[in-house]
Design goal:
Organism: Halopseudomonas litoralis
Order of helices and strands: EHEHEEEEHEHEEHEHHHHHHH
CATH topology of the largest domain: Rossmann fold
InterPro entries: 6-PGluconate_DH-like_C_sf, 6PGD_dom2, ApbA, KPA_reductase, KPR-Related, KPR_N, NAD(P)-bd_dom_sf
Enzyme class: oxidoreductase
CATH class of the largest domain: Alpha Beta
Distance between the termini: 58 Å
Radius of gyration: 19 Å
GO cellular component, one term: cytoplasm
CATH superfamily of the largest domain: NAD(P)-binding Rossmann-like Domain
EC number: 1.1.1.169
């Protein structure tokens, strides 16, 4: 008898959840999507990914739910919601999870898994998912995918020994490869998150402060230098915290970004739509860890202070 494919749940069906969930569903996986405001649009029109890599993709009908109580228990959960909502996410994850479910946290920044772990049932497996992808949500249920799509997976915590952890990560990676995506199995989650932060922290914040995409920032000598210096601060902080970074990482990332399509990072869209920005996970945690390690990050701290000022301004006007 053929073994049934595991049931996959997507919590937070925005750009990240919509893209990866659609790719998995199109590959024949049993995918269920939890939505809030976008539920009526997705029920009527499905999920569309306008991709420069894969062409225009549409998933319809969608196994979509407005209430987690209506979802079937899922063996894998992809959490694509922002880290700013993690406290309210925990009970939703617990309700959507089948016994012993694997929860993949598809978020940017540092220590998100550590903070969420305290709020989850101990029998759930928590896995870090690092998405290397250029995309944004254009409209309810509509995602524009510009480049890449690779994902790294690393086990964080749960009731699994070392061999079981490796097997679980291998299964997860194979699931994404089956959907036509590159996936890598990582052993050091903290190191991988620091390495991703080398790109994320500078480009996310500077795109907001200077109201510019990646190509505009790199075409100008002053902003390119600023981004490079911010990258180097993150590299230095990571190494001070005990995580070795690849040689000349900052320069390699600048060169690689120059080859990408012009891209506005996720924090830019949060600012544009006056949503909370992921300031703690992208900057606050790094500054705290660096300070403990005796490493200063003055440019990163200044960037955070400017972003805090901007967010406070539009948060106050919304009250």
């Amino acid at each position: 008898m053929q073994k049934a494919k595991p049931r996959i749940g997507v919590i937070g069906t925005g750009a990240i959840g919509g893209f990866y969930g659609l790719m998995l569903a199109r590959a024949g996986h049993d995918v269920h999507f939890l939505l809030r405001s976008e539920y009526p649009a997705v029920r009527e029109h499905g999920i569309t990914v306008d991709s420069r890599v894969h062409g225009e993709l549409n998933l319809k009908p969608v196994q979509a739910y407005a209430d987690v109580a209506d979802m079937p228990p899922c063996d894998w959960l992809l959490v694509g919601a922002k880290s700013t909502t993690n406290e309210t996410l925990a009970p939703i994850i617990a309700k959507a999870a089948a016994p012993g479910a694997r929860v993949i946290l598809l978020q940017n920044g540092l220590n998100n898994e550590q903070q969420l772990r305290q709020l989850l049932p101990p029998e759930l497996h928590l896995i870090g998912g690092l998405c290397y992808v250029c995309l944004y949500r254009k409209a309810p249920g509509v995602v524009v995918h510009q480049d890449n799509g690779m994902i790294d997976l690393a086990y964080h915590s749960g009731p699994a020994d070392e061999q079981q952890q490796q097997e679980m990560i291998a299964l997860g990676a194979e699931m994404f490869r089956d959907a036509g995506l590159k996936a890598r199995e990582k052993g050091n989650l903290d190191g991988a998150r620091w390495q991703k932060l080398v790109w994320n922290a500078p480009f996310n914040g500077v795109s907001v402060i200077l109201n510019a995409g990646t190509q505009t920032l790199l075409d100008n000598a002053a902003s390119r230098q600023l981004v490079g210096e911010l990258m180097q601060e993150v590299v230095d902080a990571a190494e001070a915290c005990g995580h070795s970074m690849p040689e000349l990482l900052a320069e390699k990332l600048l060169v690689g970004t120059q080859r990408m399509p012009d891209y506005l990072p996720s924090m830019y869209h949060d600012w544009l739509h006056k949503r909370p920005m992921e300031l703690d996970s992208l900057y606050g945690e790094a500054l705290k860890l660096a300070a403990v390690a005796g490493c200063s990050m003055p440019k990163t701290e200044a960037l955070l202070q400017m972003l805090q000022f901007i967010e406070a301004g539009y948060s106050a006007s919304a009250d």
